[in-house]
Amino acid sequence: MLNTDDTIEIIGARVHNLKNIDVTIPREKLVVIxxxxxxxxxxxxxxxxxxxGQRRYIETFSAYARQFLGGLERPDVDKIDGLSPVxxxxxxxxxxxxxxxxxxxxxxxxxxxLLYARAGEAFSYxxxxxxxxxxxxxxxxxxxxxxxxxxxxxxAPAVRSRKGHYRELFEQIAKQGFLKVRIDGVITDLxxxxxxxxxxxxDIEIVxxxxxxxxxxxxDKRLNESIKTAMYHGxxxxxxxxxxxxxxxxxxxxxxxxxxxxxYPNPEPNNFSFNSPKGACSNCNGLGTVNEINLxxxxxxxxxxxxxxxxxxxxxxxxxxxxxxLELIAHKYEFKLTDPVETIPQEAMSIILYGGNEKFSxxxxxMGITKDYKIDFEGISNxxxxxxxxxxxxxxxxxxKEFMDxxxxxxxxxxxxxxxxxxFKLDDKNIGDLAHMDISELSMWIKSLPKTLSExxxxxxxxxxxxxxxxxxxxxxxxxxxxxxxxxxxxxxxGEAQRIxxxxxxxxxxxxxxxxxxxxxxxxxxxxxxxxxxxxxxLRDIGNSVIVVEHDKEMIERADYVIDIGPxxxxxxxxxxxxxxxxxxxxxxxxxxxxxxxxxxxEVPKERRxxxxxxxxxxxxxxxxxxxxxxxxxxxxxxxxxxxxxxxxxTLINETLYPILNAHFFNAVKKPQPYKKIExxxxxxxxxxxxxxxxxxxxxxxxxxxxxxxxxxxxxxTMTPEAMIRGYKxxxxxxxxxxxxxxxxxxxxxxxxxxxxxxxVYVECKTCQGKRFNRETxxxxxxxxxxxxxxxxxxxxxxxxxxxxxxxxxxxxxxQDVGLGYITLxxxxxxxxxGEAQRIxxxxxxxxxxxxxxxxxxxxxTTGLHFEDIRVLMDVINVLVDRGNTVLxxxxxxxxxxxxDYIIDIGYEGGKGGGQLVAKGxxxxxxxxxxxxxxxxxxxxxx
Length: 943
Fold this sequence. Notes:
- By secondary structure, the protein is of the alpha/beta class.
């Protein structure tokens, strides 16, 4: 028995499907919780241990703070002893804001901003010269030295290259007692009512003083006064003009270009932040991209007339003001609204799209009278742009975005920053250049930076550089060398986001904390797995307890302690079937132990499928880091795309191939990454991509609504005798519309409590006890079960319960077949893992009739799957391929890779070192390739 001081003791845990279990977990060790998907691993790790840790943390708040947080329910457990402060690193915790990047999450960008603000050197964006700044005393000395014995004019710049008549400005200057101004290079006396041409750009300076320079006390005193006055009126910038040669010199207290006179504000860290108005590019507001109208989306089919919906945003002709204006334009430019859009005169089209404001008269030949008309039209294109920019409604913005495309901002070229910020340099690189580098390249640059800095810069930068170096090293340690700092956090996969948070935690160097991780090895190539395990061991060695929910064989072998939960999933799981060191676990008879010790295994197929002989060929892909890659996809086979993390697999498949196929079959508008051509589209007739994005973002969405099986169940309930007597329609059994649902929680079964600085918490509704429906609706029963009971059934129970209703049975059976028999029909989609959501989508597609020529794309479908679940999933996928379809899987898991008929390996490294085709062919051909990392690991699996 483990010593109680060194353990976390859990007694009587009953959360979800846990069967009143007692478990003792050693502290300051690397503990892996494993078991089949849905067996209760997350229920133990997150819903019991983490939930209790979070509840105890909130208990420490004052009563005043707690009243805003509401009551966090205690997890259903008798007792937990020895719990440290808990930090959970889950997969779904990244920020989806476009302003959040890898640099901002890891705080590396904040340190870079500080480095550039304090040690950066400024250069002029006009002349490229180094910027200078002076104190008033230095300026006086320079004037006395350079202009001794000469007559000079001292001026304060008031207007720089701007249009306007400036009458008020001249009046203001005169009131302050000044007599002369310099307008566009000419010195003039100020007169009453003076103004300039408002349509031309002007430079205006105030003449502060005119004096001869010699070294005496009077000159000294007068010069001091004039410099102060000039600086005050010129916003810390002044000009000196020598009267004889008309030579111009600028001086500034701020950073200033000595030849052109432009000045920058003194740098502060927020001048380099794209989330601050001081640093963000004014054109794209710091997003790096702008949305522009795409005319093809406004006029998708030029052969249609305006009346029949030729202008997509307006739809078909209606009796509205906008169509009356279009009739006036048609009247003036002599066309009809029934003419095809492509035949409308160019001038008229210009007014329809970009607006116009004009009057015209028409003489009626029959009546002999003249009638006046007025066109006052904003233009469809302008209207959409204005709605997008100015509307406060999210739905209107979404509508406007349908007619727009995203482009890189042409002012900042995607760097998100103002021009001035990009002219502060260190070792000839600006902060935007650093944000574009991948982590490994940036790490090398930072290490070499001190050699290029001056002694003063080094003294300022030494601590900041040290902080940046350690944070970069942690990112390298968790295998994220291929990411760049400006990579948007919403584009990260679950595994990447989790490893970034892990790197940030390692960087914080906390001790005595309990970390709980949810499958950190997701999306990581075997080559990088070693680095991840080392990072977790590091976290343990400095004095933390680490609990990892994981299926990875290597991770289980390297753990100090393994807890196996099972024996099956859902209600057949929830028991501790083995616990101890990995060696002790291997001696057991559990499914995990049998896969680990080789008693059970996923068999390599005796022969590979040869497909139907046809191919899909994608030539010249060059998006992101791809280096002009040409790939052939043999059809009718199971294809696996492999390669180290960041090598370009997702760019090739998800961002190039899928958008091309999607646009071809379904007229989708997402632009693919650059490529030269694609051949063989005629051999397939539709494409289906199944990714890991959630099936819904609110507790209202669930597997039953997503797969549409709930509509059939509701129809079934309306046919029960009691429902027919009461006249209930399907809407009565919906928890999304008024009538049958519980109105307290509006049918969601839970109340949402908004936590000010924590994620929202969902608490069961007190009125319906989480049943979602009102009493009258729950009185309707089919085979003794109410509609709420059906939503609480597992898929396994549902398959038996509805076995005589083919439409419902077929859909539930496919969900059961992909290994999800343990989830309930009404399980909130927010509680499903990425892998579960992906398999529900897969089941939804499988339950439809396939054509035998469908191209399926799956992105890492084994996420969250135990060895046994992978076998079940691959059986389902093999059925699809055997029917003649093509299934393409992006995957690192060798149990899947070894089953492929054809492998495409991308590499050689991640980031800039990737983007090339390393190897292609059957697994047996791949393992002969000496350069492929995948081949090295696959060889062991096949031998």
